[in-house]
Amino acid sequence: MRKTRVQLILDAGFRVITYDRRGFGNSSKPTTGYNYDRFAEDLHKLVKHLGLHDFSLVGFSMGGGEIARYFGKYGSKGVKKVVFISAVPPFLLKTQDNPEGVDQAVFDEIQKAVAADRYAFFTEFFKNFFNTDLLIGKRLTEQTVQACWNVAASASATASYACVPTWHEDFRK
After folding, report:
1. What is the CATH class of 2-168?
2. I need a labelling partner for 36 at 20 to 30 A (CA). Which of 15, 86, 164, 170 fits?
3. Domain coordinates of the chain in residue numbers?
4. Are the C-beta atoms of 89 and 168 separated by less than 8 Å?
5. What is the pTM of this model?
């Protein structure tokens, strides 16, 4: 799925730069730094290193949090457009001032499942995320689900576990 989206953007004439967040894919797998301040700092360093200007940022899921924090810390200089796709911001946690949010117990159970067997968690997560019982063979292939699973599984155990609390970071502040 990711390559399909990237290919569509390339076909539209845009240059695309993708990167692996710390702890994921081919990036280093440090034991610390799994928070949005560090993720935004990593993105900022990449933008500066590549000398980007007049660029667009696209963030999916946690990537939306990176972009939100990037703007909060570094501003919008050089950024032409921003796209949030099914992003975690502004706030997912159920609280008095966010009664439609997700109960803390859900995040606790996710973190517990990741700690117990992250591969089993990823399998169940993607089954639910993609609604595979309904969509496999119609709008989705098993290979696409497996590719997404492979991306998730490429993360370190530390990153997989440590990132769960970031899902309910409050970006409204």
Report:
1. alpha beta
2. 15
3. 2-168
4. no
5. 0.90
